[in-house]
Amino acid sequence: MGKGYYISKHLATAAMVLAAIALVTIIALSVVYNREKSKNAAKFTNATTSPVTPTPKTSNEPWDKYRLPDTLSPEYYNVTLWPRLVKNVNGMYIFTGISGVMFTCVKKTDLILIHSNKLNLTLFKGHHAKLMGQSGVTAPAIKTTWFQTEKQYLVIQLEGKLKPGKSYWLYTEFTGELADDLEGFYRSEYMEDGEKKIIAITQMQATYARKAFPCFDEPGMKAVFHITLIHDLETTALSNSQEIKNVIIDETAVTRTIFGPTKKMSTYLVAFVVSDFKYIITVYENYLFGLSKVRIWARKKAIEDGQGDYALKITQPILEFFEKYYNTSYPLSKSDQIALPDFNSGAMENWGLVTYRETALLYDPRTSANGNKQRIATVVSHELAHMWFGNLVTLKWWNDLWLNEGFASYVEYLGADYAEPNWNMKDQTILYDLQRAFAVDSLTSSHPLSQKKEEVNTPSEISEMFNTISYSKGAAVLKMLSEFLTEPVFAKGLGNYLKQFAFGSSVHSDLWDHLQKAVDQTPGVKLPYSVHEIMNRWILQMGFPVITVDTRTGNVSQKHFLLEPDAVVDRKSEYNYEWFVPIKWMKKHQVQDQLWLLQKSALHKPMKVSKNEWVLANLHVSGYFRVNYDLGNWERLLSQLKSDHQVIPVVNRAQILDDAFNLARASIINITLALRTTKYLLHEREYIPWEAALRNLNYFFQLFDRSEVYGAMQAYLKKQVKPLFEYFGIISSNWTTVASGHTDQFTQIIALSLACSTGVEGCRELTRSWFKKWMQNPHNNTIHPNLRSTVYCDAIAAGGTEEWNFGWQMFQKATVAAEAVKLRSALACTKVPWLLNRYLEYTMNPEKIRKQDATSTIGYIASNIIGQPLAWDFVRANWDYFFKLYGTGSFTFSRLISDVTYRFCTPFELSQLKRFQKDNAETGFGSGTQALQQAIEKTTAKIKWLAENKEPVLQWFLSESA
Ligand code: BES
Ligand code: ZN
């Protein structure tokens, strides 16, 4: 197609107009800057220039609601920002900005509410904004302007009314702090060649665009953005759209980059970056725009090192895959992806300028593990999936976030699979989504995927939506939907949905409508009920069913699966906790027709089987439910696993293990039956079942590693993993190479780490000698990247101060982010309490541990048996600090709570948890509220379970390890 790259006439005219206002802009921004310089700009709150008018709590005024009124609709913004990458006279980093928004009045009103947070707005004749009418309309005069700080509004009350159908121009000038707080427009720092470098970057999702410029900051309020950035000559500016002009202003040594107008888009997807980063580029043939630029940006050193090459290589096939899958061209004319040294989440899907933390985009073949490579493929795929689903069509409000994130989390596997067909990506969803979701969705403190829009209002409530339920349950439920509709029908409905709502916004039922239409148009596909009726049961009620197949009678029944069998479910469901369940299944050797379980219990004669047959339900684990059987069928499945496990599909082998352990935890089956599912592992060589087993056994480790069960359990596992360790010893020429298959390399890591932790002869000697060799020659690390995490952790755990200090030095010197993470997590493996305590202290010092890494570092420490109580004490002692830093906005906060309480299983720990809840009831737990409830519920369940099961577990391990 190759239409070549050109700037259209429209764009050229727009550029000229923008150039004409450029000088004015520079002057205006300088004025703003100078004015600010002379002021004491120490405090950047909305309240600095105007007193906040207190409003009573019960007030029902529009500015006391978190949602914007439906009176105004933005059309486009002109935003010019100038970040200062050096400190000002007050020792602060700031940015100055001017912004205009053209909006249309939809309903008559004398009130303008626009989001603005922590910005210091300039006064014009005593007001914080100027208002002008468009096309000959006279705007009413401003009566007063003030800030509703809690709701983050600039409130503009007018003398007269705005007229429906007429457009107005609202203009503001402001300064803001370019803080290192990872939110809004912020700064990131890193060292290069002994020099400290500073860059300015953004993170707007979910409610931080208002911290960069005043805006109607709701996802449904889409508009076009004209962005201009002013920056030093030696830096580059990037934004969502293509730069169309770069004007150097000689005298001031600054330049101005003007970007073309964006497509109509949401504020949370706006992004800008000013840095001295380098890039690599390729062109991508796009049917809409001809050739589009695809660039990967990162620190100069990282790009020169080739660390961006892998991401660049996979971007092209992934975009190609999604164009086909969505049946829609990539909607933009360029795609930039940039790796940032300070970034709160893993990655962010800003339209046309996707931002990543370094580990999610940069790959160094010499030091990164294949797991790091897989992470990059899935994250890139996830974010690029959003370019259509989420960005082109956006869910109207955050209550439907599950559909946006759940969808991207499902299709990320499809995109990654297309780019890396030999990685068995699609099967891995059961580990990273289905099983992860089951773990929280089996608690009474879970919640439905879809919340009512009235239930999600505050920034913390929005932030709390970014959780395992939205991501992982969302992905698992959508996968089930796609499978029972069949993929072509799912993709067809999806494509039509994207066409109808392109550049607009939708609610989840709009997608169901289009899928239903696709079903109606496809003769072969029959559903027992409509897509709406089936899906409502999965998204409007929390939890999932356990399906019990009784092969003696052919009876199939369902029951809400709860980890704590006697738990009381307070949350009512209009569907009575019953689901319409699509069950794919097989009888020994034969795949059968899918059946639908539409009531509590039903007779399905084909499931009645004779003595030498077995039934396997939830074939290929396409459904979001667990399965239980009559004991006879369990026995026959176990003996099949023992005699020839490969007759059962690999993901089902993993699921049998995970179901059995969890059914036992819920006291539905006997724990010894669950433990027996691990016996066949002697013959298992596949990654997914081993990983599923390991997770369930790890759960046992943390329950029992303080009791006498531990020794017997170790002995049994040692016996089980020994053949795997020996197998990999042989195929890797005594651990000098790694296995060739991608997932086999993962299994190899499991073999090494489990063999070393259970004390298989020869294992620890190997890993410790590798580490020692490295300590003797720090410039030549010969440990294979795949094995480094295990080796580092093991050696630091076995060692003392010397090993720790060496690890710390190597961490500080690491130039590849993935290597730094391996060391950062291994440093938490030490058994020396004072080292762990000092390491905890480091998490409050960004010079030592970056803010983006603080909570995960505490989590690593908490997963260490010695570190757990230290981490818990540390978090409680510094609660105010953590709450202030992460409590309301950051989704990592809930992780912090679940990480430090993860090992809790005693009545004493439970009472501590409850005490903690009580002591902090007044400030609350912000975005960690659900996590705390989950911790209490999980601990309660564990205490009860342990009381009943500890003895049989001990006896079983003793008898099996003898
Ligand atoms: N939209 C999110 C990033 C995000 C998360 C912003 C939470 C604000 C709050 C992005 O698409 C995302 O989901 N990123 C993931 C990685 C992904 C591969 C699951 C992340 O950051 O962990
Ligand atoms: Zn996402």
From TrEMBL:
Binds 1 zinc ion per subunit. Residues 48-59 have a biased composition (Low complexity). Belongs to the peptidase M1 family. Homodimer. The active site is at 383 (proton acceptor). The keyword Ribosomal protein does not apply. Signal peptide: none annotated. The lineage of its organism: Eukaryota, Metazoa, Chordata, Craniata, Vertebrata. It comes from the Eukaryota. GO terms for biological process: peptide catabolic process; proteolysis. Residues 310-538 form the Peptidase M1 membrane alanine aminopeptidase domain. Residues 44-64 are annotated as: Disordered. Zn(2+) binds at residues 382, 386, 405. It is found in: Cell membrane. This is Aminopeptidase. The keyword Secreted does not apply. One of its GO terms (cellular component) is cytoplasm. Keywords: Aminopeptidase, Cell membrane, Disulfide bond, Glycoprotein, Hydrolase, Membrane, Metal-binding, Metalloprotease, Protease, Signal-anchor, Transmembrane, Transmembrane helix, Zinc.
